[in-house]
Design brief:
heterotrimer, A mainly alpha (231), B mainly alpha (119), C mainly alpha (489), A: 231 residues, mainly alpha, globular, C: 489 residues, two-stranded antiparallel ribbon, 2 strands
């Protein structure tokens, strides 16, 4: 009964969507805003990766909102998972210790993956990538250590502190733009430098480094919360 | 057939969206419903990226000063999808933590049995 | 002139610093939401004279619209921002003493972020930015509904989350369609270009966006999550959800339907939907025996009434709708806050357990009574001008269909009166089961309830200045041409 009703509903939705898609031909979008960003992205923001100049330059306010969404989810997860913990007294099963190859390999690969993640978010304005991607790679490095070397844990206070301070860096950078140059929130007040070099594009590397650290520490905190749950 | 060939990305994206919606509406295991939400998110992101595609366009990155800016795909949908993926991950994390607590309270993940609140 | 961006940036910055403050002293974190909401309220009052002359348009990052994101602080936006900060301030004063158990630091962070998300939704002028701040609002409310951590809370939170996420995905598909049709994400730009495409292809994006926002705004048939969520959340969060979150969802629908789309064929459909929501909400509330579920269904009803008033699209009816919206925030907030402590003292959420509270908690019962009478629409309280404006504005239109709908509005008012009188009668005229020792609610809660009572009475006795301001806010919503002109000068 429920299946039949859902199928009919989805069929109606599908037909409506197909009829409406005929007015958006595939492969030729009306690039009003897109054309402007491609043409003036380099001169306005100084970044050669135009997607970065859109994300952190033209639509930086959206990125601030996105960082906040991740923050809310991490806090919500912490609040939901740790309220019921007190009255659980489970037997601690001894986890089988990891084999020598696994634990050595994890410890060897961990700084390499961290380095790669840092590379991705530091060069966000030159190559594909950016803060969120780099932060996710960093969190995956920590996940590997959690799963491979079993007993190691990060210090919670460091993760929490990094998260808060990076978020503050983002907001303070925006407010500095408000106070200092051009009186616009999140405006580019540092010199733009030469294209295609590391120290270019004004505040974009600073924001992306802050986002990378924030996302990395946040996702690591989430993984830490979930792993503690399973013990 | 040529409709399918020229709009294959739209068809794929909406196939994922409809699959995700079907799973959320019909299945009663909570983990399957959460997977359905994830499939729905993926479908929506694919749809938005497909809208920004320009025929024979390349990635919008000026890796060297001589790159022509004529045939680059629209960078805006990529920026939108970046945000949408992060939001999807955030909701997924919250949903999974709620399902952990739910399992601890009720002992089951079957949504038909978790109906304590009557109308 | 102060920059309105601070309305969003400062609470956000304070929310990021709360973990640092919390590691130093947990007791101090209770005051951070109070400070943030007070700052917002003072900022709104300071921006008021400037906005009265001309709406403020702020270009974020220095890029002019339509290529950058802009904030549009018009009459309607400032009204909502002021309402959010006022309600946020009062409920945060209430929470000083109400929230004692659980992860208190995280509660206050989530609370401030909920208010930030709501403020962002009402002030933005870009449709994807609206989606992002809408998500901040929704996700904080999913986490806050589950805050208590009992069986009911977790169950209602997961159901709310699933329905809310499906709604957000539909909203995103609609936004994708709009981008594919017009190539821009700025609301004023889309409003300008809306007539350049054939009207048939606009139907699907409009339906998707209204359905997506309608889950949060709790219009029928998408409101199945509301009774569970609002009754299982802590009472301060129920007050904020009923008073702010669903109304911000309704604002988003109104902004998109009126300002961006402006297709008047849809309005009658929305009016019918509003009346349907109103009737279902009030009839279900009548049959409840749990006080918080009753108040939650009453919220559904009120949202239906406000949707009906907004959908009539005349200056008078929209003014009435906005007045009723303010009244709902204040009265429903007062009802939930007073019910919160009455439930805490009596230990159960059944209406029968509230009998005799008139003697046990006199001020709290008075607050509940004032809120109930104001919501019904009795004269010296703020509900009366609101309902009067809605009914008179609707009747002025003179169509037979609308007159029938107005009759249904009056019928639902009678139903509302019946179940609220039942509770108030129980408060004062029935004997309690246990013995009666007068105990008051703590001082912070009493202060919060007193401020709300005062505001309701003042608004009811002197509605003219507020109604005048709401009239200009109504034209802010309905007048598409001046909106486009202010932004894309």
């Amino acid at each position: 009964m429920r299946v039949a009703f859902s199928l009919i509903l989805l069929a109606i939705v599908g037909v409506g969507v197909v009829l409406s898609l005929s007015s958006i031909p595939f492969g030729s979008p009306p690039m009003d805003a897109g054309k402007y960003y491609i043409d003036s992205g380099r001169t306005d923001t100084g970044a050669t990766n135009i997607v970065t100049s859109v994300v952190v330059g033209y639509r930086a306010f959206d990125t601030l909102g996105e960082v906040t969404v991740l923050f809310v989810a991490a806090i919500g997860l912490g609040a939901i998972l740790t309220t019921g913990k007190k009255n659980e007294s489970k037997k601690k099963e001894e986890l089988e210790p990891a084999s020598l190859v696994l634990s050595t390999g994890c410890r060897f690969l961990f700084p390499l993956i961290l380095l790669f993640g840092a590379y991705v978010f530091i060069h966000g304005h030159l190559t594909p990538g950016g803060g969120f991607q780099g932060g996710a790679v960093i969190a995956s490095a920590f996940l590997m250590v959690y799963l491979g070397c079993r007993k190691k844990r990060i210090r919670k206070s460091w993760a929490r502190g990094t998260e808060s301070i990076s978020g503050l860096v983002f907001v303070v950078t925006g407010l500095t733009g408000l106070a200092v140059a051009g009186h616009y929130f999140l405006s580019n007040f540092l010199p733009e430098g030469t294209l295609n070099s590391l120290f270019s594009a004004g505040i974009i590397p600073i924001i992306y480094i802050a986002i990378g650290l924030k996302v990395g520490s946040e996702l690591t905190g989430v993984i830490d919360n979930l792993i503690e749950e399973s013990e | 057939m040529s409709f399918l060939q020229s709009n294959i990305y739209y068809v794929g994206a909406f196939g994922l969206i409809l699959t995700g919606l079907l799973i959320v509406l019909v299945k009663h295991n909570l983990i399957k419903v959460i997977i359905g939400l994830s499939i729905l998110d993926t479908g929506v992101n694919m749809f938005i990226i497909a809208i920004g595609y320009l025929r024979n366009g390349t990635a919008p990155i000026f890796s060297s000063p001589e790159v022509e800016s004529v045939l680059m795909v629209d960078p805006v949908p990529q920026a939108l999808v970046l945000t949408a993926i992060v939001i999807g991950v955030a909701v997924l994390a919250l949903a999974l933590s709620l399902s952990i607590r739910l399992y601890r309270h009720f002992g089951t993940l079957d949504l038909r049995k978790i109906k304590e609140l009557k109308w | 002139m102060v920059n309105p961006v601070l309305l969003i940036a400062v609470p956000l910055g304070l929310a990021f610093t709360v973990p640092l403050i919390g590691s130093a002293s947990r007791k101090l974190t209770r005051f951070v939401p109070v400070i943030a909401s007070l700052f917002n309220l003072i900022l709104c009052i300071r921006l008021f004279p400037a906005v009265l002359e001309h709406p403020i348009v702020i270009n974020l990052g220095g890029f002019a619209p339509p290529f950058g994101i802009n904030l549009f602080v018009g009459h309607l936006g400032l009204l909502f921002a002021g309402l959010i900060s006022l309600a946020g301030l009062i409920v945060s004063i209430y929470s000083l003493s109400y929230i004692k158990t659980g992860m208190v630091v995280k509660y206050h962070m989530l609370y401030m972020l909920l208010l930030t998300g709501a403020t962002g939704v009402v002030l933005t002028g870009d449709i994807f930015n609206l989606f992002v701040f809408f998500e901040i609002l929704c996700i904080s409310s999913y986490a806050l509904v589950a805050y208590v951590g009992d069986r009911a809370g977790i169950e209602s939170s997961i159901k709310y989350l699933i329905q809310g996420t499906v709604g957000s995905s539909l909203l995103l598909i609609g936004i994708g369609f709009l981008y594919g049709l017009f190539g821009t994400l700025n609301m004023a730009d889309i409003a300008q270009k809306i007539s350049t495409v054939e009207q048939g292809s606009l139907l699907v994006p409009l339906l998707l966006i209204v359905a997506g926002l309608g889950v949060e705004a709790a219009v029928f048939p998408l409101n199945a999550w509301l009774p569970d969520a609002h009754s299982s959340a802590p009472s301060s969060i129920s007050a904020i959800l009923s008073g702010i979150a669903i109304e911000v969802g309704l604002y988003a629908i109104a902004r998109i339907v009126f300002t961006v789309f402006g297709i008047s064929d849809v309005y009658l459909f929305l009016a019918f939907l509003g009346i349907l929501t109103l009737l279902i909400g009030e009839l279900c509330a009548f049959a409840q025996s749990n006080i918080k579920r009753m108040l939650a269904y009453s919220s559904i009803g009120q949202i239906g009434l406000i949707l009906f008033a907004l959908a009539l699209a005349s200056n008078n009816s929209v003014t009435g709708g906005l007045f009723q919206l303010i009244n709902h925030t204040l009265s429903k907030g007062l009802l939930f806050l007073s019910a919160g402590y009455m439930i805490y003292r009596s230990g159960s959420m059944e209406i029968s357990s509230l009998n005799g509270m008139g003697k046990r908690m006199p001020l709290t019962s008075l607050a509940f009574t004032v809120g109930a009478f104001s919501l019904i629409g009795l004269p010296p309280f703020a509900g009366f001008p609101g309902k009067f404006l809605i009914v008179s504005g609707a009747l002025l239109q003179g169509q037979l269909v609308i007159n029938i709908l107005v009759g249904l509005v009056l019928l639902s008012t009678v139903i509302e009166g019946t179940y609220f009188f039942k509770v108030v009668q129980g408060l004062y005229f029935r004997k309690a089961d246990a013995d009666i020792t007068p105990e008051r609610a703590p001082a912070a809660a009493l202060v919060a309830m007193l401020i709300l009572m005062l505001l309701i009475v003042v608004l009811g006795v002197y509605p003219e200045p507020v109604a005048g301001f709401l009239n200009t806010a109504a034209s802010d919503l309905l007048d598409k041409v001046s909106y486009v002109g202010s932004v894309l000068r």
